[in-house]
C-alpha cells in the first residue's frame, strides 16, 4: 500500500466535505462514497454515482453491478485490490436519478485530483455520463472498447455494468471490451518504453 498516495486521497475526500460540495445531495445521502482500491493502480474505473448499497456501505460498486464488475475483473485475472474504483458523483442522487451537469461540474476538480494522485495508465469509463465528462462529443454505442488518448491520458469507454445486466447485447459487448484490458495496458506500456 502506498501510504503517501493514500494520505493524499484521504485529504481530497476531506476537502469535499469541508468545502460543502453539493450540500443537497450530501443531506439526503448516508455518507460520502469517495473511491476504493489500490492508490497505485494501473487502471481506474469511473462509474456514475453511488446507488443504495454503495450509499449504505460507503464503497463504490458493491451491489449487483459491482458483483458483475468483480466477475469481469476475475475473467482478466484481476481483483479489486489491484484496481481503483470511483464515480463522477460522490453522493447518491435521490431515487438514483441521473447526475445533473452542475453536480458533475462540482465534483470534477476532485475527480481530476484523484486521477492525478493515482496516475493510472488507463481510465475505464463506465457508462455515457462518465465517458462524456472526458470525451464530450462521443457516442458510447460508436466508441465503446476503443482506447482514446486525450491530453496524455488513455481512456477506454465501456458500457455501464448496471445497464448491461439487463441488456443481453450490451452485456456481451461489455464483457468483450473488458477482455481487451490486458492487451490495452500492454500496448500502453510498450509505447511508454519506446518513448523513454
Ligand atoms: N453504479 C455506479 O455508477 N456506481 C456505483 O458505485 C454503483 C452503481
Give a description of the structure.
- The protein starts with a helix and ends with a helix.
- It is built from ten helices and six strands, in the order ααββααβαβααββααα.
- Strand 5 and strand 6 form a beta hairpin.
- Strands 1-3-2-4-6-5 form a six-stranded mixed sheet, with helices on both faces.
- 38% of the residues are buried.
- It is globular and about 45 Å long.
- It has a single domain, classed as Uracil-DNA glycosylase-like domain (Uracil-DNA Glycosylase, subunit E), CATH 3.40.470.10.
- It is 51% helix and 13% strand.
- It is an alpha/beta fold.
- The structure holds uracil.
- Uracil (URA) binds next to loops.
Count of the domains: 1
* N/C terminus separation: 26 Å
Report the helical percentage. 40-55%
Looking at CATH, the homologous superfamily is Uracil-DNA glycosylase-like domain
Number of distinct helices: 10
**Rough outline:** globular
Give the total of beta strands: 6
Bound molecules: uracil
Output the structural class. alpha/beta
Instruction: Tell me what the CATH architecture is.
Output: 3-Layer(aba) Sandwich
CATH topological fold name: Uracil-DNA Glycosylase, subunit E
CATH class: Alpha Beta
Mean pLDDT: 96
Unreliable spans: none
Q: How many strands, which pairing sense, and closed or not: the largest β-sheet?
A: 6 strands, mixed
